[in-house]
């Protein structure tokens, strides 16, 4: 199979085509953030010190609070926090605590019931008060076995520095309605063991217990590149997101364990809604003491408080972060790369500087594409990473991980949070794992698709932006759990702890429950997620290292595919739920059909809300009422009603809604993996090469770093070929919206389905041809002076398509016309187009509906008052009507002769448009035909005899359908200006191609029948040998000389025998010109002189003959890359010859108006012609080949003409009907058996309906000849052309039927296989239907 000529490849060593000139850039920026030594240090609020000591005091016995301790005198609700309230001899015990950093922090609190349980190892008991009295919380006289004590557990001295510690303690009375605050842990043991009094419980909060630390706002230390990219400037807030809790300068004990880097991710959203993904790792490195002031050193414990003596047993550390920014959420890959860069900085020395590895990754690693599904990046001899092509899905790309969502929340909480998102609650997610925050937050906003979260959304919120939690609007915010060391969350916020899988809600509100979702769909969602959660627990095993290359290329693929499949299944569950939830919503959309008012764009005017609610179950009314009041739903209705950047996603959702509209929607697959481009091809990216000394030895290792360095621009490698940031959308100047991936996918499925049905394949091709014209329509309308008339012409084309039952692959035809109606202020016509669309049984999708509403909303509607122009028009019609009634009266008053019909306008009709030579005036009258029987009589006019050497009206190209062709339903503009007189150019075109496997000529309808549904396949199938071959389209240009507007060339080439007074054709001198093309070398465009031509050396342009499916794909690719203006530029013919000539061919076949022929006059092809500005161009489409092989026997219809003209010894110049000279060839003398008597005998058998005898005569005649017959046409084609040439169209009305009957009769005697070998079979049903749908060319 030969791939599409203009398809692009972007893999190594191959040139890019039109679709994608350069590879998308994977990484945009590399950033180093931290505390700039030279810049200003902006301090942030310090976190609280951990609790290091506990004490119980007896205030009733005169004990006081120890120095440095804080006494808890009140519970959370403001009641007395006395620990011994239930005792008989109440000593009034209270709990006290002390904060500090002089000893390891307390990790946990507990209660010991002595005698009932044993003290755990590592725990301490508070047995006495600071004043050596008993600290038992039980009755003073109780036996030892029943005493109750508070206990605690302390961190070890050798334990890691940043461990969890107790930072706050509180007491609560559940009987008073008090509950533990969010992030507090309650010890579920009652402290009050007395006979009376309420139950009392202790609770505490744990957080990271840091060393002595100062916190500052992060700043930018260095970046690469230093200049902002034009498409994406570096946001100033990136350092703050790299270190969301600020930069900490800390002093550590010398025996502190090394802290591993922490990976985090974040998402930045631009004003336009575009997302930029950030991946960062945070690490500690040494910090010079010289940069600290004395006050800062004292606070960090580096100087003694009294004598300011340096303390040498502590080290000074600072937090720093390195980060990459990208438009793609490859978080795992970025984590590996950043980890490698960090390890490279702390090891060494190295031969290459750190900057070389950064620039190598940014410049040399491309985005994975279908041509490069896997990219293995070798960072060093021991470090590598693998990039895999993301899943091709119509859903929006995001950094969501539904695996982590289900893993960290479970089925029940996941459903509950879906309810919270759909009803727009305030959600606060927190975790000690920053990367999990981003992945789960992205999944939360993705699982409500197609509803889009438009309220504040910060997956990883820096400390400086925490004020967003006080906003009086819904939000989704993620924070590090250490945020709660400083602040308490607002009471109206739903807090979600991803580390403990708990949801905390305020007590004064009814708690959220997933059971509030619609019962049937909610239960299905919960059950499916439960099953997937069980599967997830089985396959997601932590700790698999991917160190070796063998693992990367084998095991990793299996694990990645399993996880990718499960990820899609979880996503599909939520998508199915949303599809069922909004099922049938499009029927309640209200299109704009009147002049817009102030309330036209309101949601109530765009959507029938009450009808939608009534269509839902009564038990679900409360939920749907809440849903429809959200900002998300209002935004969704507006996006469905108007043009939106999400139209492709919304169109995909509409398809999902249609799929789930079945009895068992849970069994329907909604997300189909696009495996068409999947492959095992792996591209290897090698690490940067190490330099060598001149003698070949290794260079010395000079680069080592004590801390992560400030990047030096001079050490970066400059890119050889800068990768580009992927462009979004089509060319801005093109009003024609391109098809979405989903529309293309559906069109391919339909084409694949119709290719197996003969009577539908032609209609499918016809639909794509009309799609081509409507894609060209904006260019045509722009070039027309009467633009409104051109729009009405397009509307008439739509109606004609409906009459012909054309199978449209998509809605682009309607969509483009609607958009042009808006562009040129024709809202009423847009409404008519919508009605025509619904009449055709097509429900507009989201994209078309949006363009329709945009057209009728933004256009100026005509006034409802009758203006002067309308009144004058009415008066004119009345006067014309009166004049028409008076004409017959005047005729009767004259002679009694029969009145002759009067017409001042000659009209013609032929919908096929193949003989009109692109004549596009209003053609509605009857078609003038020559009578082939009368024309067989010898004419006394010598000039007329010269015009018709055969003595017949040559109607070889007439419709083989042989039924009256329908008249056009729309006015067509003539490509010849009737007011012009000047030199005319004629373009002869033919699609007849030679199959080199069997040396047979394959004609247009057979080529069409052999095309496949693959829009990248140029091949057709030969009907004789079944071999694949590339068909070609041939065109010749000649100068017709001065043309009179009244000459028959302005009419139809349908057999008019009119004398011509123009000069004979003048052809170009022989030359050969090569054109640049995206075809493979053997398919390049050729412009040369055909060997067999003797007509002045006419040049011939040869291009690949593309099926409408392939041509449409390439045309859309051209417009996307170069814009719509390219179709009107003179260089279009030369730069894109394949597309140009194919468009001309199809437009002429269907009689569709265009301005393409005007580009021929400005082409270098006609530079040698003498032409004026008024020169016109016409096209003649020929059925037979333009360059017959004169080494072969002449075809029968040529021999018939030659015999009838009695010119047998010299080349002849034949003139077909209409006076246009036929091209002649120097046919060599051959010993062929086709005499005049033979031809007459064949015609006699055909005329007598004995076609089988004519076939037998032909085969017997060939069998008597020595050697193999030198013919390239099939027997059917020879007889067809001969019959048409000799008898005309009227005598061959049933030729196909007769030939098919003769073939069936002969098959019983000779056998079908034998007839097939002799190329005697008739065309296939698919080919016949293609001929009937397109109509063949009208000339040979």
Automatic annotation (TrEMBL):
Top-rank lineage group of the source organism: Eukaryota
Residue spans of biased composition, Polar residues class: 929-938
Keyword annotations from UniProtKB, A to Z: Guanine-nucleotide releasing factor
UniProt cross-references to Pfam families, sorted A to Z: dDENN, DENN, PPR_2, uDENN
Region feature Disordered, mapped onto this chain: 890-938, 1314-1340
Location of the MABP domain: 48-208
Listed name of the protein: DENN domain containing 4B
Residue ranges with Basic residues bias: 890-901
Composition bias, Low complexity: 909-923
Originating organism: Lates calcarifer (Barramundi)
Boundaries of every UDENN domain copy: 200-649
PROSITE patterns: DENN, MABP, PPR
Membrane-traversing stretches: none
């Amino acid at each position: 199979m030969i791939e599409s000529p203009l398809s692009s490849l972007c893999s190594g060593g191959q040139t890019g085509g039109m679709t994608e000139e350069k590879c998308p850039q994977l990484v945009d920026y590399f950033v180093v953030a931290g505390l700039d030594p030279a810049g200003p240090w902006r301090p942030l609020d310090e976190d609280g010190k951990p609790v290091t000591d506990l004490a119980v005091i007896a205030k009733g016995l005169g004990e006081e609070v120890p120095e440095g301790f804080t006494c808890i005198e009140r519970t959370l609700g403001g009641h007395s926090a006395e620990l011994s309230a239930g005792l008989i001899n109440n000593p009034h015990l209270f709990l006290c605590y002390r904060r500090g950093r002089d000893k390891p922090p307390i990790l946990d609190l507990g209660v010991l019931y002595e005698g009932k349980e044993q003290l755990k190892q590592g725990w301490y008991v508070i047995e006495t008060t600071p004043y050596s009295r008993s600290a038992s919380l039980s009755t003073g006289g109780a036996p030892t076995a029943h005493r109750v004590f508070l206990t605690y557990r302390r961190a070890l001295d050798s334990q890691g520095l940043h461990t969890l510690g107790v930072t706050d303690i509180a007491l609560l009375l559940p009987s008073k309605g008090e509950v533990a605050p969010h992030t507090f842990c309650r010890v579920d043991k009652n402290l009050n063991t007395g006979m009376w009094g309420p139950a009392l419980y202790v609770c505490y909060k744990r957080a990271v217990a840091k060393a002595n630390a100062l916190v500052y706002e992060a700043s930018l230390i260095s970046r690469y590149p230093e200049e902002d990219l034009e498409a994406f400037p570096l946001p100033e807030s990136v350092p703050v997101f790299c270190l969301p809790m600020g930069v900490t300068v800390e002093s550590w004990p010398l025996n502190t364990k090394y802290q591993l880097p922490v990976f985090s991710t974040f998402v930045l959203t631009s004003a336009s809604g575009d997302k930029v993904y950030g991946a960062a790792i945070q690490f500690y490195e040494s910090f010079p003491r010289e940069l600290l002031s004395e006050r800062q050193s004292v606070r960090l414990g580096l100087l003694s408080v009294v004598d300011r003596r340096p303390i040498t047993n502590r080290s000074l550390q600072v937090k720093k972060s390195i980060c990459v920014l990208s438009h793609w959420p490859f978080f795992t890959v970025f984590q590996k790369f950043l980890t490698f860069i960090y390890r490279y900085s702390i090891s060494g020395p190295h031969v290459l500087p750190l900057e070389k590895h950064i620039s190598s990754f940014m410049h040399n690693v491309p985005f994975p594409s279908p041509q490069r599904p896997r990219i293995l990046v070798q960072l060093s001899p021991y470090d590598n990473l693998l990039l895999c092509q993301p899943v091709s899905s119509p859903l929006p790309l995001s950094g969501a991980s539904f695996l982590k969502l289900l893993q960290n929340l479970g089925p029940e909480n996941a459903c509950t949070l879906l309810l919270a998102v759909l009803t727009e609650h305030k959600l606060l997610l927190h975790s000690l794992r920053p990367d999990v925050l981003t992945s789960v937050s992205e999944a939360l906003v993705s699982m409500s698709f197609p509803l889009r979260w438009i309220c504040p959304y910060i997956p990883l919120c820096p400390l400086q932006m925490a004020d967003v939690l006080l906003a009086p609007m819904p939000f989704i915010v993620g924070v590090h759990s250490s945020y709660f060391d400083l602040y308490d969350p607002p009471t109206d916020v739903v807090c979600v702890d991803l580390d403990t899988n708990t949801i905390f809600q305020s007590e004064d509100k009814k708690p959220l429950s997933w059971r509030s979702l619609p019962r049937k769909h909610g239960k299905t969602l919960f059950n499916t997620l439960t099953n997937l959660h069980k599967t997830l627990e089985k396959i997601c095993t932590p700790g698999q290292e991917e160190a070796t290359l063998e693992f990367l290329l084998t095991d990793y693929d299996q694990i990645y595919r399993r996880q990718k499949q499960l990820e899609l299944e979880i996503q599909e569950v939520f998508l199915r739920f949303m599809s069922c939830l909004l099922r049938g919503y499009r029927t309640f959309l209200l299109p704009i059909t009147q002049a817009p008012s102030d309330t036209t764009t309101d949601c109530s005017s765009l959507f029938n809300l009450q009808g939608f609610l009534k269509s839902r179950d009564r038990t679900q009314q409360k939920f749907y009422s809440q849903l429809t009041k959200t900002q998300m739903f209002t935004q969704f209705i507006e996006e469905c009603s108007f043009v939106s950047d999400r139209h492709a996603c919304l169109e995909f959702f509409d398809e999902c809604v249609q799929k789930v509209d079945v009895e068992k929607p849970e069994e329907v697959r909604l997300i189909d993996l696009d495996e068409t481009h999947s492959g095992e091809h792996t591209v290897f990216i090698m690490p940067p090469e190490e330099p060598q000394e001149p003698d070949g030895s290794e260079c010395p290792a000079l680069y080592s770093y004590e801390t992560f360095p400030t990047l030096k621009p001079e050490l970066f490698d400059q890119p050889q070929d800068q990768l580009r940031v992927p462009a979004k959308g089509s060319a801005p100047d093109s009003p024609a919206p391109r098809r979405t991936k989903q529309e293309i996918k559906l069109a391919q499925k339909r084409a694949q389905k119709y290719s197996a049905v003969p009577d539908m394949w032609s209609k499918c091709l016809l639909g794509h041809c009309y799609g081509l014209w409507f894609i060209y329509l904006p260019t045509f309308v722009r070039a027309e002076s009467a633009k409104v008339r051109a729009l009405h012409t397009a509307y008439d084309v739509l109606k004609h398509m409906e009459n012909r039952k054309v199978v449209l692959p998509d809605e682009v035809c309607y969509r483009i016309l609607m958009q042009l109606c808006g562009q040129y202020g024709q809202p009423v016509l847009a409404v008519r187009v919508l009605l025509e669309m619904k009449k055709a049984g097509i429900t507009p999708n989201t994209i078309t509906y949006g363009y329709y509403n945009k057209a009728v909303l933004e256009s100026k509607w005509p006034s409802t008052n009758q203006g002067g122009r309308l009144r004058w028009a009415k008066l004119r019609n009345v006067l014309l009507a009166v004049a028409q009634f008076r004409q017959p009266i005047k005729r009767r008053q004259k002679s009694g002769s029969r009145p002759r019909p009067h017409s001042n306008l000659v009209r013609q009709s032929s919908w096929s448009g193949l003989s009109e030579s692109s004549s596009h005036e209003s053609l509605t009258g009857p078609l003038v035909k020559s009578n082939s029987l009368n024309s067989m009589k010898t004419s006394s006019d010598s000039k007329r005899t010269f015009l018709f050497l055969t003595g017949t009206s040559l109607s070889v190209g007439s419709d083989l359908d042989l039924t009256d062709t329908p008249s056009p339903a729309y006015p067509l503009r003539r490509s010849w200006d009737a007011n012009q007189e000047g030199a005319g150019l004629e373009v002869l075109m033919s699609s007849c191609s030679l199959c080199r496997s069997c040396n047979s000529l394959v004609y247009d309808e057979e080529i069409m029948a052999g095309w496949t549904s693959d829009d990248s396949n140029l091949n057709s199938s030969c009907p004789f040998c079944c071999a694949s071959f590339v068909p070609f389209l041939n065109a010749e240009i000649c100068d017709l000389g001065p043309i009179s507007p009244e000459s028959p060339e302005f009419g139809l080439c349908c057999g008019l025998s009119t004398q011509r007074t123009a000069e004979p054709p003048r052809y170009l001198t022989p030359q050969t010109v090569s054109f640049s093309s995206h075809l493979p070398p053997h398919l390049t465009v050729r412009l040369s002189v055909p060997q067999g031509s003797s007509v002045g050396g006419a040049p011939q342009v040869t291009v690949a003959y593309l099926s409408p499916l392939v041509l449409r794909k390439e045309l859309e690719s051209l417009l996307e890359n170069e814009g719509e203006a390219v179709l009107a530029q003179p260089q279009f013919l030369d730069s894109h010859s394949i597309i140009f000539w194919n468009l001309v061919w199809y437009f002429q076949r269907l009689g569709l108006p265009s301005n393409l022929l005007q580009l021929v006059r400005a082409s270098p092809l006609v530079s040698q012609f003498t032409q004026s500005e008024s020169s016109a161009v016409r096209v003649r489409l020929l059925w037979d080949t333009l360059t017959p092989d004169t080494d072969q026997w002449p075809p029968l219809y040529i021999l018939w003409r030659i015999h009838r003209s009695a010119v047998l010894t010299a080349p002849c110049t034949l003139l077909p009907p209409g006076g246009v000279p036929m091209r002649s060839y120097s046919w060599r003398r051959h010993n062929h058996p086709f005499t005049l008597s033979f031809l007459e005998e064949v015609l006699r058998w055909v005329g007598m309906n004995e076609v089988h005898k004519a076939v037998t005569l032909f085969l017997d005649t060939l069998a008597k000849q020595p050697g193999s017959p030198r013919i390239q046409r099939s027997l059917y084609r020879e007889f067809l052309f001969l019959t048409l040439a000799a008898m005309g169209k009227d005598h061959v009305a049933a030729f196909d039927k007769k030939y098919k009957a003769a073939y069936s009769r002969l098959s019983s005697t000779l056998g079908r296989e034998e007839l097939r070998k002799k190329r005697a079979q008739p065309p296939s049903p698919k080919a016949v239907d293609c001929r009937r749908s397109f109509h063949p060319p009208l000339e040979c």
